[in-house]
Structures are given as C-alpha cells and as structure tokens.
C-alpha cells in the first residue's frame, strides 16, 4: 500500500519503520516542522498517489487534517487525541462525501481488550455494589492533552455501565456522581492506564502498560490495511470484532 503519513513525530516515525517491515511504501510525509523532509501538503495527494493517510499530529490540527484528507478522497486513519469536540462534524462530512474515516483513541490491541474488559467489569462492580471507581493515566512530559484520549474512552465505558457515575472530573471527585481521572506526566512513560475499584474491604485493579509505541503503530497499520474500500466511520471495535 502507498501510505501518506501526516505527522512525523514519535508516532509517525514508529509507523514508518513498521510500514517498511510490512512491505508498504510511504507515498509522502506531511509535517508542519520536519525541515529535513521534502515539503508536502495534503492537497498534493489523491487516491492516484496514496491509498490511505495516517494522521498523528496535534489536538489543534487533527480535525483540519482529517477534513483535508476526506476532501481529497483519501481514506484516513486518525490517531491524534484531544480533538473529539469536532468528531460529529467529521462524521457528518464523512457521510456527505461518502468518505472513509477510522478513529481510535488508542490503536494498541491490548488497550482495546482493556476497553472491552473495562465495560464488563464496570457492569459487574456496579451490580455487586459497595465500590467506588477511579481512572489513572501516566504519560511522558511532552504529552499535550489531559486527560489522555484513552482515559476518556475508559471513563465513557465505565459510565455506560456504572450509572451512579454521571460525569468525569480531571482530579479528585467532588461528588459521588463524579468519576475521578488522575493524570500524571513523568519522564518518557509511553502510556499507562489503570482503573481502580475500592471498597471498605478490598481493591480491584485493571491495568494496561505500554512498553513501547510499536503496539500503537501496528494497530494503526492494521486499520490502514483494513479501511480502503469501506465507506463510513469506523473504530477498533469493528476492526477487531470486539
Ligand atoms: N491513538 C493512539 O493510539 C495514539 C495517539 N497518540 C496521539 O497522537 C498525536 C501525536 O503523538 P506523537 O507522535 O507522540 O506526537 P509528536 O509531538 O512526537 O509528533 C507530532 C508531529 O506532528 C507534527 N505536526 C504538528 N502539527 C501539524 C500539522 N498541522 N500538520 C502536520 N504535522 C503537524 C509535529 O511537527 C510533530 O512532528 C497526539 O495527539 C497523541 O496523543 C499518540 C500515541 C498513540
Ligand atoms: O500522547 C501519547 O503518547 C498517547 N496518546 C494516546 C492517548 O491520549 O490516550 C494514546 C497513548 O496512551 C499514547
């Protein structure tokens, strides 16, 4: 496949390395600040020159990059977090243009299993009662958005099945209805997410810890291999049949 990479930072470079191993060609790289690369723009690419675009940039640029890809007729796999206030607009545009958009707050297969077990656990823990629940995420100090996209997906999964939690708060809960999300930024931590249930008698935890970015890169490439030819908005549940 010919892949257009949008964003050539930590994730873009991890994807490029794995794409080569999987026999893909990098059709081009669009990065706002990568001066060593040949300058390129999304509008330079069409389905004739790229089969799919993979976007990992910044919360402030993801929506514009996604819409540019859709307008060029390029299927787009987006991994940037912190832009979901625009997600409905992206869905509408995808439908209008009969385009292809894939989004995941976390492309790691392990995290998507974690999401699945998180929802199951929330339903059971609510049923048995007596537990409070909180989410903790730990990332490297360069991370811009807080809470992480993964923590927000985790919180949404809890709230769907643990109805006494009706909203999340980034910090300690101020009321019993709030789900606390604690964010830590330290060193070069790749990404750790923990859900903790505590009662008077015990504590139960569900944890995912990424050891490298390779798991995210592999998931993004699996999505890029799967997306072309499908019309609509998709995520890891469809890809992994979870
Ligand atoms: N969904 C997932 O599985 C994962 C998502 N992420 C998310 O992906 C995004 C990128 O993460 P990293 O690669 O670690 O960041 P990074 O800061 O290492 O790289 C981002 C790159 O995007 C470039 N960039 C910024 N604005 C741009 C624009 N308007 N057009 C083109 N390029 C632009 C920057 O110059 C930089 O090279 C973040 O939002 C992060 O939260 C990161 C890891 C996994
Ligand atoms: O910025 C990162 O690094 C990561 N971002 C994603 C998120 O916000 O959840 C996924 C992963 O945790 C790494």
From TrEMBL:
<dbReference type="Pfam" id="PF05173">
    <property type="entry name" value="DapB_C"/>
</dbReference>
<dbReference type="InterPro" id="IPR022663">
    <property type="entry name" value="DapB_C"/>
</dbReference>
<keyword id="KW-0521">NADP</keyword>
<dbReference type="InterPro" id="IPR023940">
    <property type="entry name" value="DHDPR_bac"/>
</dbReference>
<dbReference type="InterPro" id="IPR036291">
    <property type="entry name" value="NAD(P)-bd_dom_sf"/>
</dbReference>
<keyword id="KW-0028">Amino-acid biosynthesis</keyword>
<keyword id="KW-0520">NAD</keyword>
<dbReference type="InterPro" id="IPR000846">
    <property type="entry name" value="DapB_N"/>
</dbReference>
<dbReference type="GO" id="GO:0005829">
    <property type="term" value="C:cytosol"/>
</dbReference>
<protein>
    <recommendedName>
        <fullName>4-hydroxy-tetrahydrodipicolinate reductase</fullName>
        <ecNumber>1.17.1.8</ecNumber>
    </recommendedName>
</protein>
<keyword id="KW-0560">Oxidoreductase</keyword>
<dbReference type="GO" id="GO:0019877">
    <property type="term" value="P:diaminopimelate biosynthetic process"/>
</dbReference>
<keyword id="KW-0220">Diaminopimelate biosynthesis</keyword>
<dbReference type="GO" id="GO:0008839">
    <property type="term" value="F:4-hydroxy-tetrahydrodipicolinate reductase"/>
</dbReference>
<comment type="pathway">
    <text>Amino-acid biosynthesis; L-lysine biosynthesis via DAP pathway; (S)-tetrahydrodipicolinate from L-aspartate: step 4/4.</text>
</comment>
<feature type="domain" description="Dihydrodipicolinate reductase C-terminal">
    <location>
        <begin position="110"/>
        <end position="240"/>
    </location>
</feature>
<dbReference type="Pfam" id="PF01113">
    <property type="entry name" value="DapB_N"/>
</dbReference>
<feature type="domain" description="Dihydrodipicolinate reductase N-terminal">
    <location>
        <begin position="1"/>
        <end position="107"/>
    </location>
</feature>
<keyword id="KW-0457">Lysine biosynthesis</keyword>
<dbReference type="GO" id="GO:0009089">
    <property type="term" value="P:lysine biosynthetic process via diaminopimelate"/>
</dbReference>
<comment type="similarity">
    <text>Belongs to the DapB family.</text>
</comment>
């Amino acid at each position: 496949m010919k892949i257009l990479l949008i964003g050539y930072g930590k994730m873009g470079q991890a994807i490029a390395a794995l794409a080569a191993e999987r026999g893909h060609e990098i059709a081009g790289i669009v990065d706002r600040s990568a001066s060593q690369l040949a300058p390129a723009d999304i509008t330079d690419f069409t389905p004739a020159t790229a089969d799919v675009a993979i976007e990992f940039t910044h919360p402030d640029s993801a929506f514009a990059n996604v819409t540019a890809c859709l307008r060029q007729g390029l299927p787009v796999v987006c991994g940037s977090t912190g832009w979901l206030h625009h997600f409905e607009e992206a869905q509408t545009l995808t439908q209008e243009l009969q385009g292809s958009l894939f989004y995941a707050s976390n492309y790691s297969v392990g995290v998507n299993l974690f999401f699945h077990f998180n929802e199951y656990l929330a339903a059971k823990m609510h049923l048995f009662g007596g537990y409070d629940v909180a989410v903790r995420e730990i990332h490297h100090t360069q991370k811009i958005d807080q809470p992480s996209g993964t923590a927000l997906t985790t919180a949404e999964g809890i709230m769907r099945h643990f109805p006494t939690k009706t909203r999340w708060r980034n910090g300690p809960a101020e009321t019993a209805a709030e789900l606390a999300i604690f964010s830590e930024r330290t060193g070069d931590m790749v990404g750790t997410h923990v859900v903790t249930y505590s009662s008077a008698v015990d504590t139960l935890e569900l944890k995912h810890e990424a050891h490298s970015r390779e798991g995210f890169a592999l998931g993004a490439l699996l999505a890029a291999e799967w997306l072309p030819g499908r019309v609509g908005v998709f995520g890891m549940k469809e890809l992994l049949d979870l």
